Amino acid sequence: MVTNVSEKDKALQEVIDWCEQREIEGLRLANALLMQREMDAYGAVKGQINAYEKTADHCRSLLGYSGNMPSEVPNHSEDAK
Fold first, then answer.
1. Which residues of the chain have pLDDT under 50?
2. Residue ranges in the chain assigned as alpha helix (H)
3. What pTM value is reported for the model?
């Protein structure tokens, strides 16, 4: 990991790591449920796994993003022609 990481990126990485751990645990549980043919419970766990995966992906997309405005903004005033 880069040593000069913002606090926001550190927090995002913590969430990513947490989600990935929940995914791993969920996959183990899903496999056990599938072996027991508990399809309703399996479907619910797979939904949770998907939610953790999407959350981690979203956090990854935010890493390193400063949120700064572009340096040039088009003029949208009423009298601009």
1. 1-3, 69-70, 81
2. 7-35, 39-62
3. 0.71
